Every structure is written in structure tokens, then in C-alpha cells.
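REQUEST ID: PR-0412
SUBMITTED BY: lab tech R.K.
PRIORITY: routine
TASK: structure prediction, single protein chain
INPUT:
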Amino acid sequence: MSILQYSSSKHGDVTLIRIGGSLDAETASKFDQKIQGEIQKGAKKVVCSMEALDYIASAGLGILISANEKLSKSGGEIRLSCMNQKISKIFKLLGFINLFKIYPDDEKAVESF
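STATUS: complete
OUTPUT:
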């Protein structure tokens, strides 16, 4: 059974979402509900911190892309931070590394807005 950890906090007008565990077909719908909930609450500037993320599958990548597209229609964006080597390798292999702005830590990502 896959486990997804999720928490969010506000840093000014930036919503920081920390995700951990596994973001795969089994947990993607839960993550989608959470991130869509943040968008419905008015989040436009979102940072997804991936420090504790062990695995991401195409379903998880799809959720990130979909949420980013929704945000961009309202002038917002998702930025990624704290991506470990394993997750970074998946993004590079699939060619997704250029779809998001990626930062080495949460602070730089939040400040980049």
C-alpha cells in the first residue's frame, strides 16, 4: 500500500506544499484533491517541496502538470523545491525538467515569486 504525506503552510501569498512518500496511481487522486483544494482557497503561487518524496509515477506528474496549467490560466504557477536525486532523475528522463522552475530549497522557491 502506497503512502503519501502532505502538509501545507502559507508564506505571505505563497502556499508551500510538502509532499512525501509515494506519489503514484494509488495516491494521485488524494494529492489532486489536496492541491485542487488549495487552488479553490485562492492559492496562485504554489511551491511543492519534494524533499521527503521517495517516488513519483506518471499519475503524480500528470497531477502537477494539470494543476500548473489551471494556475497559469489565473496568473499563477507551481514551482518545485528540494528535489532529491532520484526524483530529479525521473523528471529528466521523462523530459519534465523544463516544465517547471526548480529550486534547491524551499526558501529560494518561495522568494522567487
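NOTES: The radius of gyration is 13 Å.
REVIEWED BY: pending
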